[in-house]
Inverse folding.
């Protein structure tokens, strides 16, 4: 099911602007994530630290919150960048809000719409096998193509967006290069089972 993206995004931002001007924007009350130290980094949440453990276990060197970007007045700080794969990852514990979806979209559009490798990872690392392929479930940015021109949008999966939203993010399977199914399962398990002393420092062998 497709929709006109310009109309949808315009309506979203008109509503956001109105709420801000009128002082009616509501701050969602949530439990504050616990900052966690691992491998020389201080992560904003345990979930991000678990993904760091996962990357470490499969020998993927990462950079955490390496650079902040500003696009059309929107500021965005991606969670992870993997230099060897030239891939960006956003980590979320739950489906994204409209504003969070918009930030990810603007980043992809403005950074390198036709070549960027950007995915949203929701929840803790978990190995998934589809047919003969083992990987990690992701929500990946779909490049413009003859099949899917730039103006095409798809209904975002419920696991990705908390509300009905049309975007260029599609459910996919990230098959990690040069990592066996056994290694993938071991890394995902280690990441999910990682314990953090006093809510701060990980007790994995890779921790600093």
């Amino acid at each position: 099911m497709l929709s006109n993206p310009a109309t949808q995004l315009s309506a979203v931002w008109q509503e956001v602007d109105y709420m801000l001007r009128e002082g009616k924007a509501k701050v969602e009350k949530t439990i504050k994530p616990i900052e966690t130290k691992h491998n020389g980094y201080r992560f904003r949440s345990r979930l991000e630290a678990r993904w760091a453990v996962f990357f470490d276990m499969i020998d993927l060197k990462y950079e955490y919150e390496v650079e902040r970007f500003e696009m059309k007045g929107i500021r965005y700080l991606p969670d992870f960048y993997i230099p060897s794969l030239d891939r960006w990852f956003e980590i979320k514990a739950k489906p994204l809000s409209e504003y969070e979806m918009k930030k990810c979209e603007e980043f992809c559009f403005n950074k390198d719409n036709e070549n960027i490798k950007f995915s949203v990872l929701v929840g803790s690392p978990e190995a998934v096998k589809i047919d003969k392929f083992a990987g990690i479930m992701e929500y990946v940015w779909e490049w413009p193509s003859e099949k899917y021109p730039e103006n095409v949008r798809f209904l975002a999966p419920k696991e990705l967006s908390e509300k009905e939203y049309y975007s260029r993010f599609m459910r996919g399977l990230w098959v990690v290069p040069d990592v066996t199914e056994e290694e993938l399962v071991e890394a995902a398990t280690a990441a999910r089972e990682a314990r953090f002393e006093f809510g701060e420092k990980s007790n994995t062998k890779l921790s600093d």
Observations:
- The mean pLDDT is 85.
- Residues 5-21 form the longest helix (17 residues).
